[in-house]
């Protein structure tokens, strides 16, 4: 298995934000993908999509357009959704939000071993990812422009892969026992920590309980990151019980942790 090298003890840099930061981040992702490709997944997982590979064009556009500077806040998600990032290559990548608000559109290839029930049609997909629509819709309302959001923040997923059964049913790491996922967590926690270090993140907004736990584990394991604050935000998925008022819950999270100041642009 390829080694994922820690950058925690690399020297700090005061250089102005530029493409070098993007290159470092993309290198971390490429190394992570190499390690993921060598993992033995549970037999229930029959199909694996990795949009950072087959949608590299739009994923890299997202990184170079919006993640070329150090960030105070990371919004931390779990993995690509079938009608969002798996189609567009952008985290929480509901198609209209990516195309019309983030102004990202480009080539999306087909993944290997594509599931017939979950085809990748890229920006031609007619399905809507509700989680992404809710997430980006909230920040569009608050920030008005993507630039106002990305001045301080960015979105990162714990794992670049979407897993499915043969019937196309979505499976996530949280569906398995800890012992089954330990090899993934040993890699993913370190990668998360490396990304936090690279972007000099002060606050992690963990979207959902899975991400809260992984952020806690990663940060507690690395001494130099123990000053990073972790905030819990409910996941915007419509599958979460009693989640019709997700926007209200998300705003409460931002207000109660004094984060709304970074996004409220006024009328």
From TrEMBL:
Drop me one GO molecular function for this one. Answer: oxidized pyrimidine nucleobase lesion DNA N-glycosylase activity
Subcellular compartments: Nucleus
Alphabetical UniProt keywords: DNA damage, DNA repair, DNA-binding, Hydrolase, Nucleus
Which segments constitute the Uracil-DNA glycosylase-like domain? 65-247
Q: Name one GO cellular component term.
A: nucleus
- Record-annotated membrane-spanning stretches: none
* GO BP annotations listed: base-excision repair
Top-rank taxon: Eukaryota
Pfam families referenced in this protein's UniProt entry, alphabetically: UDG (PF03167)
**Similarity field:** Belongs to the uracil-DNA glycosylase (UDG) superfamily. SMUG1 family.
> What's the protein here called?
Uracil-DNA glycosylase-like domain-containing protein
Q: Which species is listed as the source?
A: Leptidea sinapis
């Amino acid at each position: 298995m390829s080694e994922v090298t820690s950058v925690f003890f690399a020297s700090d840099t005061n250089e102005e934000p530029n493409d070098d930061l993007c290159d470092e981040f993309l290198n971390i992702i490429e190394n992570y993908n190499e390690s993921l490709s060598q993992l033995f997944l549970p037999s229930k997982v029959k199909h694996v999509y990795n949009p950072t590979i087959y949608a590299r064009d739009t994923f890299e556009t997202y990184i170079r357009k919006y993640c070329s500077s150090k960030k105070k806040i990371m919004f931390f998600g779990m993995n690509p959704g079938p009608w969002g990032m798996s189609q567009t290559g952008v985290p929480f990548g509901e198609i209209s939000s990516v195309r019309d608000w983030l102004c990202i559109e480009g080539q999306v290839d087909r993944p290997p071993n594509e599931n017939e029930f979950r085809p990748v049609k890229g920006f031609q997909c007619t399905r809507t990812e509700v989680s992404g629509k809710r997430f980006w819709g909230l920040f569009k309302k608050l920030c008005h422009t993507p630039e106002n959001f990305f001045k301080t923040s960015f979105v990162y997923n714990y794992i670049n892969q979407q897993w499915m059964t043969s019937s196309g049913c979505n499976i996530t790491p949280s569906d398995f026992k800890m012992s089954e996922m330990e090899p993934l967590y040993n890699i993913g926690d370190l990668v998360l920590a490396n990304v936090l270090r690279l972007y000099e993140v002060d606050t992690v907004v963990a979207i959902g309980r899975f991400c809260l736990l992984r952020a806690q584990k990663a940060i507690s394991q690395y001494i130099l990151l123990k000053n990073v604050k972790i905030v819990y935000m409910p996941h915007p998925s419509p599958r979460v019980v009693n989640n019709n008022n997700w926007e209200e819950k998300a705003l409460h999270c931002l207000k109660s942790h004094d984060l709304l100041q970074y996004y409220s642009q006024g009328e």
